[in-house]
Structure formats: structure tokens, C-alpha cells
Design goal:
Layout lengths: L1 H4 L4 E4 L9 H13 L9 H5 L4 H11 L6 H18 L7 H10 L3 E6 L3 H10 L8 E4 H4 L7 H10 L6 E5 L2 H9 L4 E4 L8 H7 L2 E3 L7
Parallel strand pairs: 1-2, 1-4, 2-3, 4-5, 5-6
Helix pairs in contact: 2-5, 4-5, 5-7, 10-11
Length: 217
């Protein structure tokens, strides 16, 4: 297994677009959100918010579209629209389940680092029967900085009890790859169709790049 060859003791995963085949759900949520307000979703909207945690994205959305909604009501609406899909429909990417179990069986500690909400993460990992494989979790909101910075990955590695050099970060977005590299982590870029425009640069910056987790087994 490649990760063991690198003498990696920990693996830190982004969730949406990396472990989870979930980005289409977020597109549908955004379309529904704007449709309820008779607003056409701008072409650049998802690109603008994709690296933000819920409060920052809600603040941006409220300000950009001069919405009367409170920040909390926007967050609650997004959470409501997402929860059913995360609990019942979203699945792991091809080979991800097998890769997670292989890591666990080989003694590699596993964490996730995400801009998503804890409620959604817990629901989707539970429904996919892998939540027990994770030893630690870290959220962008508690780290206090976006994934352009290493903070959320450093928090995850600290909670695993490992140094950054001992943990490989798995990310599907360029900002996350760059942020993790700033923290001294080896990084595996993961292909996702929603970030395909960044694929070549992700390949260049990452230590490893995959289109499927089967490539690591």
C-alpha cells in the first residue's frame, strides 16, 4: 500500500469532494436556496464559497444578495436542505470505503478536516458505516482560518498525536492542497469533477495525485 511505503502514520481527509461524492448535492441545495428567493444563481457563486465554512458563506451570501434573512436562518436552511441527503443518499467515492478499512487495519490513524458542519459529517459517515474508523476530527470554523491556511490540518494532526510530516492529507481543491503543504504535510490530490479546472495545478503541487482510491490499494 502506497501510504505505508511513505512511512505515514496518519491520514487526514477532506470530506466533500474527496471522500464523499457529494458536490452535486451542494449544487442542488444552492439552486433550491436561490429559487426560493426568485434569484438566479450566479455562475461564479459556488467557486466563491466552496472553501468557506457555513458562517462565512452565509455572511457572504447575505451581503452579496442583500438578503433580509439572518445569518443563522441561512445556515439553518442550508442544514435542513442538506441533512436528508447526507443521512440517506450520499455515498463514499469509489474505493474509499476499502481504502479507509485498509488504513485502519494497518494501524494508520485516520482523521477528517472539513469546512462542513459536524451534524452533516456525523450523519453521512454513520450512514456509510465508517465513522468508527476515525480517531479525530477538525473543523474550519473551530480552527478559525480557511483551508488556504494549514490551521485545520494542524489541529487534526495534533488530535491524532502526530507530526505533520507523519500525516498525509487528502484534498480535492487547490486551496486545501496549498494550505496543507504550508503546514509541512505530504499531500495526495484527489480528482473531483467539480474541481477539474484546478486538476493540473493540483497535480503539480501535490506529492501524489489519484483519480480513484483503488489506485492506492
Amino acid at each position: 500500500m502506497y501510504i505505508n511505503k511513505r512511512q505515514i502514520k496518519g491520514a487526514i481527509f477532506d470530506l466533500d469532494g474527496t471522500l464523499l461524492d457529494s458536490m452535486a448535492v451542494w449544487h442542488d441545495v444552492d439552486v433550491q436556496f436561490f429559487s426560493r428567493r426568485n434569484i438566479e444563481m450566479p455562475a461564479d457563486y459556488q467557486e466563491k464559497i466552496k472553501n468557506m465554512h457555513f458562517p462565512s458563506a452565509a455572511e457572504y451570501t447575505k451581503a452579496r444578495f442583500s438578503l433580509p434573512d439572518s445569518i443563522q436562518s441561512i445556515i439553518d436552511e442550508w442544514r435542513s436542505l442538506c441533512f436528508e441527503a447526507y443521512q440517506n443518499h450520499i455515498r463514499l467515492k469509489d474505493g474509499a470505503n476499502e481504502f479507509l478499512h485498509t488504513l485502519h487495519e494497518n494501524g494508520v490513524k485516520i482523521a477528517y478536516a472539513t469546512a462542513s458542519e459536524e451534524q452533516l459529517c456525523s450523519a453521512v459517515l454513520t450512514s456509510n458505516n465508517v465513522i468508527e474508523l476515525f480517531s479525530a476530527k477538525a473543523y474550519v470554523e473551530e480552527a478559525g482560518k480557511s483551508k488556504a491556511h494549514p490551521d485545520v490540518y494542524l489541529l487534526a494532526s495534533e488530535r491524532l498525536g502526530l507530526k505533520p510530516s507523519e500525516c498525509m492529507v487528502f484534498e480535492d481543491i487547490l486551496q486545501g492542497v496549498r494550505g496543507a503543504k504550508k503546514g509541512g504535510f505530504p499531500v495526495c490530490g484527489v480528482y473531483d469533477s467539480c474541481s477539474k479546472s484546478e486538476a493540473e495545478e493540483i497535480k503539480r503541487v501535490s506529492d501524489l495525485y489519484i483519480t480513484s482510491f483503488w489506485e492506492l490499494l
